[in-house]
Amino acid sequence: MNMVFIYEDKIAKDTEGNYYTGSAFSQEVFDRYLQHFDHITLIMRKAPVDPEDAETLSHMNRIEKDRIDVVFIPNTRESLKSFLNPSIRRELKCTVISEINKADAVVIRAHSGSGYIAARYCNAHHIPYLAEAVGCPWDSLWNHSFRGKVLAPFIRMQMHFIMKHASYAIYVTDSFLQHRYPTDGKSAAISDVELQAAEEQVLVKRLEHIRIHAGKIKIGTAGALHVAFKGQRFVIKALAELKAQGLTNFSYHLAGGGDRTALLGLAKKLGVEDQLVFDGLLPHDAMFEWLDDLDIYIQPSQQEGMPRALIEAMSRGLPCFGSRIGGIPELLENLEIFSSGDFHAIVKRLRSLTPMKMEKMAKRNFNYAKRFEKKQLEKKRFDFYSDFASFSEIHR
User: Fold this and answer.
1) Which residues of the chain does CATH 3.40.50.2000 include?
2) Structure pTM?
3) pLDDT tens-digit profile of 28-82?
4) Least enclosed by CB within 10 Å: which of 20, 107, 193, 204?
């Protein structure tokens, strides 16, 4: 059976015809589908990487091309002009429909414009498809820019259609995305965050860390520094309010790449620049060591699906706080959550901490994170994909 995978992520190609992704996609992700399908055709946008730029390509995820092909589609996200261009939209529609007609099964990772085209065509021609909801486009666009606010209602409507009419639907949350984008099809909650089983010694070390702690309290957030909806500025504002209250025993560690100018400028304006530590973009295998050195993790985002960084922090037994956004309230207790942007609430949460509370949070978070262990999620995902493959073979 042949499967077509529709998602407007970017993918690069080298001079020898090999493909590379720079996102969360990797060969391991596509292997999940290849357990059930003989061949995959990816419908994606072309990444702006020169085929001869070996240096850039070496830092991307290489995709095995034996059982995977790529069909490039025009980039309708480049500008509003390209988004509305009728000739570009016709080319996009023709490409998507042509590939669907060649395939035995259709998978749409929502949201994307090509995914909406695919969902409408499949629905009109009674072709089963599987839709994967990995985030909320409304939250993403509304917190992005004025252009995003203009597009948000239209894109949300498209996402509703894609999920509602899917024969099978996977959500990375337990309830948030399901409530906002319900489906009439068979559904499953399967996180795209997978963790290796944590050793109990991790929790033992965390509890000891809390008991013997002295000196400054290290707060941390992992996320791109230049992306406003990651919300680091709200923690910086909380530091300033704490300082005004005479509390300066907090340092704020930021892991992530991107331009730090805006965050550093805000910290200088508020007089807390000496409490900021920029730890840079860390390789994934160094993240756990970074997390283990923190005392508190905060996810102050304005938009999230199911945040990997927060789940990884929980798996290290870290006491955590997070905003009432996306899947975050599914992960944390109510007293550990604050309204997005409410830095006064962050201050209250930090001031309320005691060693006893932190020990309780550490135990609860460590045990809750076990739900995201890879082996458990792989079994659930394998069974769901297998069911969809059988359904597609019968009804295509």
Assistant:
1) 2-194+374-395, 200-371
2) 0.83
3) 899 999 999 999 999 999 988 999 998 889 888 899 888 999 999 987 666 556 6
4) 204
CATH fold group of domain 200-371:
Rossmann fold (3.40.50)
Pick the CATH number of 2-194+374-395 from 3.40.50.2000, 3.30.70.20, 3.40.50.300, 1.10.3210.10: 3.40.50.2000
| HEC-encoded secondary structure of the chain | CEEEEEEEEEEEECCCCCEEECCCCCHHHHHHHHCCCCEEEEEEEECCCCCCCHHHHHCCEEECCCCEEEEEECCCCCCHHHHHCHHHHHHHHHHHHHHHHHCCEEEEEECCHHHHHHHHHHHHCCCCEEEEECCCHHHHHHCCCHHHHHHHHHHHHHHHHHHHCCCEEEECCCCHHHHHCCCCCEEEECCCCCECCCCHHHHHHHHHHHHCCCCCEEEEEECCCCCHHHCHHHHHHHHHHHHHCCCCCEEEEEECCCCCHHHHHHHHHHCCHHHEEEEECCCHHHHHHHHHCCCEEEECCCCCCCCHHHHHHHHCCCCEEEECCCCHHHHCCHHHEECCCCHHHHHHHHHCCCHHHHHHHHHHHHHHHHHHEHHHHHHHHHHHHHHHHHHHHHHC
Model pLDDT, residue 51: 92
